[in-house]
Structures are given as C-alpha cells and as structure tokens.
Write a structure and sequence with these properties.
Elements (H helix, E strand, L loop, with lengths): L15 E6 L2 E7 L7 E9 L7 H17 L1 H9 L2 E7 L3 E9 L3 H14 L4 H18 L4 H11 L8 H7 L5 H10 L3 E10 L3 H15 L2 E2 L11 E2 L3 E8 L8 E11 L3 H25 L6 E7 L4 E10 L3 H21 L2 H15 L6 H14 L6 H11 L2 H12 L8 E8 L8 H6 L2 H12 L7 H14 L3 H15 L6 H9 L4 H10 L19 E2 L5 E3 L2 H5 L3 E2 L14
C-alpha cells in the first residue's frame, strides 16, 4: 500500500507515451493528484474480426456474455480485494477496464486477458445467452420512436454500424461451433492500446503491456487494417429520411433534426457550437414542449462525429405529423436568430460563464481522471489540453461571432453550404404520404393535411388541401379565411356524420395545429437545393417542390456517402522508449 509518487507544485494533465510500435500503443501517468494506493488500467484490444459483419458483431456480444459468466467467481474475489473490472465489446474490438487498489490490479489484468484468450463455450452457456441476445434484438423493435430515430440518425452518420434488424437477419447462422471458431480466431491479429494510471511506475506499465501481448500471442495488426470509427460526409442540401415504426400500437412519431455546423477538427467552431447548444436548450424546450405541447420528449443538444461533422440536434417525439413537427423546428430556428441578435451582453456573458464553470469542474478521483485521458486517447485526437484550449477560446468568443456562426451554418437562407438531415419515424396510426404526393405537394400542404388528421378530420385528401391553399394565395386570404374555406369543404363532405362539430371546434381553437400549419404553408421559404447529385433520383430518392431530398431506404442512401478520414492527432506522437 506504499504510495510511489512524489508531490510536485504542478499537476501533469497529459499521460506520457511510453511505446508506439506496430501492435502496441502504451500511455502512462503516475498519480500526482490524489496520492492514494490505487490504480486504473484501460485496454483496447483492436481486432477487425469483432465488427466486420452483423454476424461477427452478434458473436462478439455473445462472447462477452459467456466471458462474464465464466468470470463470476473472479468478480467476487476482485470485489473482496477492492478491485472492479469491466469487459465489453466495441466497434473496434474489446475493452478491458480495471480500477482499484494497485497491489493486485496487474495480477487481475493477467487473469482477465488469459481467460479472454482461452475461453471455451459450454453448451448451457450458449443456450442461455443466445436466447438472451435474440430476445434483446427482438425487443429492440418495440423501442420508443425516439430510440428508433436516434438509431437511424447514427446509421446515416457513422461509417461503421450494424442495426438490430441487420443482426436479426444473420441470427439463423449463430451456432455454438461457429461461436467457438470466432473466439479462437478473434485474436489472430491485434493492436493493443493501453493506458496505465495511478500508483504505478513506468517499468510496471511496460511489463504489463508486454504481458498482455504475450498472452494474446497475436500478430501485429497493421495500421492500414485498423477499423477506426469514421463519419459519413453529406453534401450541401436538405435531406429527410422517412421510416415507419416497426411496432403498430404506438401513437407517437418522432423527428431527429440535425444541422451540420462544420468539422470536429475546428476547435473554435466546436466551442461556439457548445455555447450555442447551451443557449438554445431552454428556449427550444419552452417553445415546442411547454407552449406548443408537441410532445413530452423534446430537447436540443450537439453531437460531434469522429473525423467528421459537428451537428446541432433537435429532437421532438409527438403524436403530430412528422412533417408538421419538422416545420415547427424550422420555424423555431428562423425565429431564434433574432433572439441571439437581441440578447443583452450581460445575458451572453452569463452563458459564457456557465460553460466556463462546466469546463473548469475539478476532477474528483483517479477513475474520472483516467476516463478523461482515455477519451482523448481512444478518439485519436490526443487533445489532452482540450479544456485549456476551450477556456482560452471562451475568453475571446463574442456575440457577433456567435451570430456569424449561425449565419454560416444554421440559417437556411444565409448559409452558402447549408446541410441538414431530418430522420423521421412515423406512427402506423398516421397516414404517411406516398412518394408521388411528396414529390408533387410541398411540406405546407402535407403539414395542413396531417394537422387535419390530428384534429380528427380524415375525409379531405391532399389534393383538397392543396386546392384550398392555392385559392388562399390567389385571393390573398389571411389564415382565418383559409381555415374557414377548409372547414366549409369538410362540412360539405361529412353532412350528418357524428363528431363533425367536435372536429370543427378543435380546428377553430386559437392554438390548433391546423391554424399553425396554414400560417407555415404561407411563409414557406425559397428552396435550398444544394449540390447533391441528381443521380439520387435513380435510387428512389424523391425531390420535393422545395428542393429537399426525401428517401425511405436508409441503406441505399448511406451507400452514396463518402467516409471521412481518420482523426488526425493534435500533437506529435513520439514514444519515450
């Protein structure tokens, strides 16, 4: 239990790269902050076999479950010794993480790696865990709409990803013999990425890395064969993905709206996006959830894809038509610019201060410190000074810069290379427009038609609504007059039917979706056509009257996208040994 490190006036924020060779990347940092007899080891065993197909990803998931079962006794012994460990599968391979008192930690690491390498699947284990994995995949189709739509958004932005339906399609090939063959061949070629922190010395870290490589007994995985997570790159344009809920009983639909805001490698843009996301969170929720009552699940955030784009994301799960909801998000974004422009300097400084306080939050323990360093290592950017960089940028960021960022990326009419992707999923309780209708009629027509259905009117066709809106434009009618035209058309078609008065009363409410949709149809902006290839039309992608690209087959559209390059390190990687 001896503490090996000495106290210094300053704390080192970055680990030291001890070794960098084909097959091994070893980072080390001796504890200079907490001075406790504790350690933390994080290990990524990269193996291209782990996620090369939906079937192998299922095998890797099964392998982890069998392994945890095999390690049950060791788990108990580790807890008694003040140790904790986790083993999980990732796109790149397998992650091993150990935390606790350092005196027995490396012995536990040896046991875990040895068990990984020599694991044999028993029939009872296979029967139990294959059923469990199959059940989880089957249950995935019963997820809430926001879960499905987030999966679709990730699928359209990540270079490597298998969905639950891809895995289910391959599940018939899962057998115990194939699983064992997969495990036996999993470590033929590997690359070890390792971070050792805490109450250790360099020689112990080097010895631990050598031990791991020796136990694996693998050939080194060449740099060109690594499966580094990459992003998919979208050309300028407006893209909308329409999908149907797999489960028929859910009345909710969902929209996950992403506006692309430059590349993740843009440090200053990254900080401005974080600030913008912070400013937008409360107003977005207040407008669409509290005031408009569109749905309980409503939020805005940001997302950064490794090696690719950054996005401003806005999500709403609602019983309303996804086209109506998407137009409400568009309307919010149009109105929000004036809010940014009119924001007082005092309020702006308050947001900057809040973001600064979040960045300056102190690390509480070794586990947290190790986690922060590991994120920088595993991302491929090695930006250990990221917090200092962000804080320096925050000192100079201005309200004017925030507006310029908005105009460059978020404002559909001002941005020179505007990119957005709306992943929508439709409840089976809502009539989804056909491709022919999407191509012929604008979003405003579909929003009004969907709102009529939402308010209980299921008689008027899309053609009826389009005709009324055209009459409104030709006659110069206001929204009230257009609403009365629609009601008159509706009443003439449903004379004598029950619930007519109830439906009409709902349409006439001051905050009815129909009123709002009519107003949106009137203020629809000019097209944002972008530079997307018209060859998309040959793949079943539809071009709307406003120039948006609408598609249903995510896999086919995804295949047209370019992949980003791998993340580029922000510092030279020069090993000590």
């Amino acid at each position: 239990m001896e503490v090996k490190s000495e106290r210094h006036d300053t704390v080192c924020e970055a680990p030291t790269l001890l070794k960098l060779a084909e097959g091994l990347e070893l980072w080390f940092k001796q504890d200079d902050r907490f001075f406790l007899p504790r350690g933390n080891v994080r290990l990524l065993i990269e193996t291209p076999r782990a996620y090369e197909s939906p079937l192998t990803s299922v095998f890797n998931q099964l392998f982890m479950m069998v392994l945890k079962d095999t390690l049950t006794e060791i788990t108990y012994d580790a807890e008694i010794a003040g140790l904790w460990f986790e083993i999980r599968d990732t796109i790149e391979g397998i992650v091993v993480h150990i935390d606790g008192f350092n005196d027995k930690l490396l012995q536990l690491l040896e046991i875990l790696v040895k068990t990984l390498r020599t694991c044999k699947v028993e029939q009872t284990q296979f029967d139990v865990y294959s059923r469990e994995v199959k059940k989880k995949l089957d249950n995935a189709r019963h997820s809430e709409p926001y879960g499905h739509v987030q999966t679709n958004t990730s699928f359209l932005n990540q270079g490597i990803m298998w969905r639950f339906m891809d895995k289910l399609a391959a599940f018939d090939l899962v057998t115990i013999d194939r699983l064992q063959l997969f495990i036996d061949s999993l470590f033929e070629q590997t690359r070890v990425q390792m971070l050792v922190t805490g109450n250790f010395e360099e020689r112990e870290a080097v010895a631990a890395a050598s031990m791991v490589q020796s136990l694996l007994g693998s050939r080194a995985l060449p740099e060109y064969a690594r499966r580094v997570p990459r992003a998919l790159l979208h050309e300028p344009g407006v893209y909308v993905h329409h999908a149907l809920m797999p489960e028929k009983g859910n009345v909710n639909s969902c929209v996950d709206y992403s506006v692309y805001t430059g590349m993740t490698s843009d440090h200053r843009g990254r900080v401005v996006l974080d600030l913008l996301s912070l400013i937008m969170q409360e107003p977005f929720f207040d407008q669409l959830r509290t005031k408009e009552q569109l749905g309980y699940i409503t939020y805005s955030t940001e997302r950064k894809y490794n090696g690719g784009h950054m996005t401003l994301r806005l999500l709403v799960q609602s019983e309303a038509s996804p086209i109506y909801v998407r137009m409400r998000i568009d309307h919010f974004l149009r109105e929000f610019r004036s809010r940014l422009d009119e924001m007082t300097l005092e309020k702006f400084d308050g947001y900057v201060s809040s973001l600064r306080v979040a960045r300056e939050e102190k690390i509480k323990n070794l586990f947290e410190e190790s986690g922060r360093m590991w994120r920088h290592v595993s991302s491929g950017y090695y930006e250990f000074d990221r917090i200092a960089t962000d804080l320096e940028i925050l000192r100079t960021v201005s309200q004017r810069e925030l507006l310029e960022f908005w105009d460059m990326y978020v404002d559909k009419q001002r941005a020179s290379a505007y990119i957005s992707l709306a992943a929508t999923i439709w409840s089976t309780k809502i009539a989804q427009p056909t491709d022919e209708e999407l191509e012929k009629f604008g979003d405003g027509v579909h929003a009004v038609h969907g709102s009529l259905e939402h308010d209980g009117e299921r008689v008027l066709s899309v053609e009826h609504v389009d005709r009324v809106l055209r009459q409104m434009d030709e006659a110069g009618d206001d929204e009230e007059r257009a609403l009365e035209r629609i009601i008159s058309e509706y009443e003439s078609m449903v004379k004598g039917e029950a619930d007519v008065e109830k439906a009409v009363a709902k349409m006439r409410k001051p905050a009815s979706h129909v009123r709002t949709a009519i107003a949106m149809a009137r203020e629809q902006n000019k097209p944002v056509c972008g530079k997307a290839d018209n060859g998309l039309l040959n793949m079943g992608v539809v071009r709307s009257p406003s120039g948006d690209w609408l598609f249903r087959e995510a896999s086919a559209f995804r295949a047209t996208l370019r992949q980003s390059g791998a993340p580029v390190p922000t510092r030279p990687l020069v090993p000590k040994y």
